[in-house]
Structure formats: structure tokens, C-alpha cells
Aldehyde dehydrogenase domain-containing protein (Pieris brassicae), 486 residues
Amino acid sequence: MAPEVKYTKIFINNKWVDSKSGKTFPTYSPHDGSVIAQIAEGDKADVDLAVSAAKAAFHRNSEWRLLDASQRGRILSKFADLVERDAKYLAELEGYDNGMVCAFSHKVLTNVPNQIRYIASLADKVEGSTIPLDGDTFSYTLKQPVGVCALILPWNVPILMFVNKVATALAAGCTAVVKPAEQTPLTALALTALLKEAGLPAGVLNVVPGFGETAGVALTHHVDVAKVSFTGSLEVGKLIQKAAGTNNLKRVTLELGGKSPLVIMNDANLEAAVQYAAMGVFSNQGQMCIAASRLFVQSGIYDQFVQAAAAVAKSLKIGNPADPSTQHGPQVDEEMMNKVLGLIEKGKAEGATLVTGGKRVGNCGYYIEPTVFANVKDEMTIAKEEIFGPVQNILKFETLEEVLDRANDTNYGLAAGIFTSNVNTALQFSKHVESGNVWVNTYLAIGPQAPFGGFKDSGIGRELGSDSLQEYLEVKTVTMALPKKI
């Protein structure tokens, strides 16, 4: 049975409201393409109201600004308790709207409450410093919230991205306007209801569902927005960075995807490497910014690895994401499915060897077989472009020096990994690979304590870890003259 859809309206100043235009848009099931619900469609008029509410809530005399930092942390801790209470419902809603398989969404929801609790614990850990300035002065720094934040979510892991951005902004003392991805608005709205239940004051968090070209543009250009945090495509990220400087100088954090290299050395534990490599590219149907979509395998084990990788891909059970036994679900929508299928065809046309998969499954919903390509070359499109689908590209290499150069030959730099039994190899790779996240003999190992972000075109700034809070703070230097003598 499908989960109940409880929230479909815009959330402004702690109230659920219709869009000013009265318009709605549909959100679809990736499983069968059916309409799940009609969602209030926000545009500039709604964004203006939401930003106004957030600005008022950020006033120095507002209820929110007068709260102790520890009290902000307690509200977030209460939010974590409520997410834990409703974890089953939220996991089912995520899968219903996003296509995330049941096992994956429940795993996500198992980790989310502790992620919130970690961020909550940072709220009263914001500290300045004293400075030994020359002369008869007393100088110190204050770290203060930046202001109203525009938080723009992706569709691939909506709950995780909501928590990363919203909880961190609130822990820092900011107020926020959230724009969920138009493909997956439901869990952002459900989480917002839980923050209201947790006691968040009016206006601190506002949520405006809508489309990028209307609600998103209005939000990123708004003069009263002090910061934008966006996770999504490089193309849109560049537009947002330009928009952030149009009417004022907004602070920006961006996480814009990757083309992540995973290197398998001859001395690797082959069984573990095959399993982690499959998980790294087939989890969530490959719809992950950190997908291990460039798999470099050393020549001594290449043929053996390809054979084992194909066997794993063929073994994955494809089906309804709500079925607990399903291991591989649909792409998020028809547009993404067609994009992935088009790149698969390009891989075949450019000479890569299709080992398994490569086809759409059925004609209802947006399913693609887990796909493995061998004999992939660096110059091929599938080795260069972010596919964001279940396509494992296996490239051959000879030496560590060679593979480091090839791994770094991309404009992206979000994640990388290596499997080896040689600690020196692991250390050399970790030092020299151009990536914000590096895994050794594992992959996708992420926790709230470890900062997450990318080099090069993969982004600006960090989420998670204590570093993430700094992205929402300004540093103010205060210097006072002291009397020369007591």
C-alpha cells in the first residue's frame, strides 16, 4: 500500500498555504509513471513572501535570534527524535516519490537521526578567538550567522540533503527558504512538518516547491538572501554562482557531482573489490554524485574482474522499490531514463564492449538493467560525462603513476577510491588524487562527523563535519582601545 501523502502545500511562517497563483504541478511515481499528488507550485510571489518571513525571523530581536545556542540544539535534537519516530513512513515516502529501493531508503533513515543529533551538538560550539593585536588594544572575533539562506535540494537523496543543509543552517542560527527538487518534493514537506512539531519558531524555515526557472531563479536572485547552498548539476551550479552575484554578493556552497575514479590494484582483495565497486555504481540506481563511474582495474586481474563484475550486475533483483527484496529500482523520471539509455548507446557506438545489461526493463516505469562496459577508453563519452545511472565502466591500467594521471584527468574531483593491500600505494594515491573524498579498501563510507565536498568543478565548500557550520557563519573582528595605565 502506498504511503499517505500528508503535505502538498507551500510552508511560510509556520503555515501551510496555497501558491499565490493557485497553480499546482504533479509529482510522479518512478515505478509506473502515475501521478502521486498535485503540489502547490511556488513562483516569485511565493518566494518573496517566504524570504520576507525568514528575514523577519532573523531580526536581532526575534524569538529565534534571542534563543540560546543550546536551545537551538535542543530543537534539532527533538527533530531527530521525531524523524526516528516516523522513520518507517519517511523511508516509504522517499521510495514512493524518488524510486529509492526499500532497503536503501530504510538504511538512510536509520542513519539520519544521528546525523541530525551530531549537527545539533555543534550549535553551542561556535567559538571566536582573542588576538594579540599590537598596541593598547583588546581584539577578538565573533562568529555570527550569515542570515537568510536559500537551500536548493537535489532529487537523488532528498532526505539526506534536507538534513545536511537545513539542520546545519539552523544550528548556525540562520533562517532559511528551501526549494525542493520538483521531481521529489514530498519528504522535504514531511520533514518540515516535523521541525514545526519540534518547536521551531515561525518564519525560521520556509519551503517553496516549484521549478528552477521560476522559484529557483527568484530565490537565487533575491536581494535579501545572504547565502545559497545548492546540490545538483554542474550546469545549474554555474548559473547559480552567476545569479548569486547579480543583486548582492551571496555566499555560495555548491556540490556539483563527479566522475569518480575507483582504482583496483593487482594485489587487492578481489572479492571485496568487486562487491564494493558494484555498490559504488549501482546503489540508488547510480543516481549518486559519488558513484564510482570510472573503474580502473590493473591489467593483471582485469579479465577476472570483468567477469566477476558482470556476474554481480546480473544477480541484482530488479523490481518495485517498495518490495523489500528489490535490489535495483527505477530511474527518477523518464527524462533521466532516456538520458542514461542514450549514453549507453553512445558507449556501444564508440567501441566499448557491452558485457551485460544496457536495456530498458519493460515499458512501465523507468527501469534500466544494471550495465557493465569493458574495454572503455578515457576519451569515450561514457568515461568523461557524469551518467547518473547504473552504468559501470571498466578501464585497464598498468602502473600507479599512470592511473593517477588518468584519474585526475577530469574537471570533477568529488570522490575517489583504491583497493590495495600495500599501504604505501594507498598513501600515495590518497595524497595525489585530486578529490575531496578518498576511500581505501571501502567505498561510500560517509558519516556526519566527516566533511564532504569536492575539488575543481565538483563544488565549493563542505557539508557534514564541524567544517560545515563555518559555511553558514561570518567572522567579525572587534577591537577595543585599552587605557594605557590602570
Remarks:
- DSSP finds 16 helices and 20 strands in the chain.
- The CA atoms of residues 255 and 459 lie 4 Å apart.
- The mean pLDDT is 97.
- The radius of gyration is 23 Å.
